[in-house]
């Protein structure tokens, strides 16, 4: 396919997303199934265009003075991809029957000016949902626009070297051809930068070293969160009992097992067993022997564990606002009701975690959200209700596990302790919030 056909496909997919209001992966997959002539490079270029539009839907629409899919895709191609009006006009070649109609004079004028209206509000400038601006301003203050823009950029591919099977240098050497570099903060992190425009993201899970368990795909922020959790156990980690209460596909369980040198007993639980996905295969590949998956369908597997865990990791269900770079459609689909539902679930899992942790043990509360309602507010409410817990200096713990000193903005003072916050702007990671809560002896 030539670029004209790819542009038309992106327009079609975005229109489909608008009318049927469904996840972008589903729309892209369906398009691929009904257009089998499109090769993998075409599908990936089309996917890039669709995702780039979704990341910056508000600002591109304001630049164009029009937010229909055609205007948005034209803006992404000409401006974000740097093709310019000339490149777009060449792609919209009337001789190519798959190409869109050439830019109209109004579209051409908007693309030439390429500026936001003077009165564009912060939600438009920073590509944020308007209803969340007050919450995000509470967290970011005068950095809101910069943080919003960073949340609207493309994200690199992050890997965690699985130190149970290989060290980071071995992974770096193995993936040198893909452009792998050492991550900035995570001592076990490897980053594979993604290119601009139509460049295809590397398909690293087809590497033999992946199948051998040398690495997992995991955002650097998620790696750091697991390291902060594991650090709570101190040098006496061997034989400790860790409950990964919201284990999902097991990303944190696997990282915890590696961080503990497979010396702890990790119990991976999720109240929805469909969320486990291929967790058993992942555990087998990782070489970890200390992870046990608890089936929520078999009675109450947590009941016998009450008051026994040295560490309970609560990788809480959340709105995922910190992952908007990777899931930009979620940014515009998120509604106040969903935030409220997540808050309710978070209160529930924190309460359950408090039942499981032993006196002197730790809860590590983690979200991949940057909203204070899911982070600071939840921790403050928990501490107000549970006087037997105190917030540790989580930011200092993050500093101890990180490979180099972190920006000051990662430190979130909260009462007598601190939480830690990672963001695409501050740390080049997904947005994460981490708070370590220690139960009194
Ligand atoms: C952020 S995801 C977990 C991601 C996973 N820890 C990882 O690193 O790959 C949150 C998970 O919490 C689970 N969950 C929601 N409410 C729960 C509850 N009350 N008890 C246990 N798990 C719950 C969801 O099913 C979901 O899989």
Automatic annotation (TrEMBL):
PROSITE patterns documented for this protein: SAM_MT_RSMB_NOP
Q: Which domain of life is it from?
A: Bacteria
Please provide the record's keywords in A-Z order: Methyltransferase, RNA-binding, S-adenosyl-L-methionine, Transferase
SAM-dependent MTase RsmB/NOP-type domain residues are 147-440
UniProt keyword Protein biosynthesis, yes or no: no
Identify the residues that bind S-adenosyl-L-methionine: 270, 315
Q: Name one GO molecular function term.
A: RNA methyltransferase activity
Question: Gene3D superfamilies this protein is in?
Answer: Sun protein, domain 3 (3.30.70.1170), Vaccinia Virus protein VP39 (3.40.50.150)
According to its UniProt entry, one GO biological process term is: RNA methylation
Active site per UniProt: 368 (nucleophile)
Family that this chain belongs to? Belongs to the class I-like SAM-binding methyltransferase superfamily. RsmB/NOP family.
Q: What is this protein called?
A: RsmB/NOP family class I SAM-dependent RNA methyltransferase
Task: Give the species.
Answer: Methylobrevis albus
